[in-house]
Amino acid sequence: MSKTPKKFYAVAKGLKPGIYPTWFGADGAEAQVKGIQGAKFKGFPTREEAEEWIASPETGFSRPKPELKKPMLSSHRPEEDIVIYTDGSALNNPGPGGYGVVIQYQGKMIQELSGGFQCTTNNRMELLACIMGLRNFQEKKTITLYSDSKYVVDGITKKWAQGWRKRGWKKSNGENALNPDLWEQLLSLTEYHQVDFRWVKGHAGNPGNERCDVLANTEAAKSGLPIDKGYKKQL
Fold it and tell me: Model pTM?
């Protein structure tokens, strides 16, 4: 029996990321990845499978929002050129979840990122928000990252995650450390960039944190969200 031909091509990294119904031609997937170093793409028999893959955390795909001109008030100090605010949410935890990211440069909000999954946890979305924010920078940067998650901030600053990784993703008591797929990505990014993780109290009127909360909850409330395969593997 012959194989079903692939009809949809998902381009996660290329000239113009997205889903393409054809490979050849100026409007096809080939034109988006040919000659692009580090291009990431894959073919699928259905659009649904292509969209699920491109939205998964491992592809690094995100839909950046256009640059905004109005500055966002923040509590960051003048010397902090690049500031990232992050937040994650999971309704009923576990349940439908989303993440939100606000990126500021010299006190002005320049980009927002967000995404969601049909069943995940709050901690996974908190981690993914940090990952997506840091992935936005290809060159090494000095970044101040604000999160209202003690799980994330303490995991990095108190070197819990480094210890879990050294023990093969085991806690000191021998139990499995959760979310190793996301912790591995976050640790790699913090070893590439110089990141200062800082905890900020949630729902306390901080504009950056409040905006991330709105983005995360908006994504969590959407229908047709993709599957968080990393969470599914832990069940």
Answer: 0.68
